[in-house]
Amino acid sequence: QSVLTQPPSVSAAPGQKVAISCSGSSSNIGNNYVSWYQHFPGTAPRLLIYEDNKRPSGIPDRFSGSKSGTSATLGITGLQTGDEADYYCGTWDGSLSAGVFGGGTKVTVL
Amino acid sequence: QVQLQESGPGLVKASGTLSLTCDVSGVSISSSSWWVWVRQSPGKGLEWIGEVFHRGTTNYNPSLESRVSISVDRSTNQFSLKVTSVTAADTAMYYCARVRTDVRGRMISYYIDTWGRGALATVSS
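Above: the input entities. Below: the structure tokens describing the complete assembly.
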């Protein structure tokens, strides 16, 4: 059972957009910044979004992040077949004094 | 650029100790960074195991704390993970990574910007 809650899967057709939610509490998302990662199994995860909505260099602007209260959202527009991967949210949890991840969301391009 | 590479035995006997090392290159491990271990068990999501600061301070996942130890060796620019009393549930891909963290007012910025490629550790009975 992950501290942060994500939907197991989302899907859309190529060119469409998807939104992945990440729900937490005041000890994590509510009072700390959120990051998002893209993961193709067997490879190193890649940082997509940090500090709620900032993109590292090299990450296309098709990926965006937002946060409201104790929930965060990753948006992907112009969906491509290469976006089929698992996506994780993460943050610091002040009550646990530990980093935490969501359970992951599998994105499928129909 | 910063690179991390995990190494260690791929097979560990149940009830034994799993030991992995992360070789850091491109930056001194003594820079102002925390260094973290994350794992992914088959069919499951990412799990934060614990982290170490270059001065040796550590934080651990409360669910693993009694069995986990993370240390740093500044002379070799490496940090290490030990998991004791392993079971099949500890079979996973283990990743070492660099944390970027800062305090902005009352909020903590915490994210992992550089990851190793991962090392598979299998617990055998």
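Note for the figure: Chain B has a mean pLDDT of 95.
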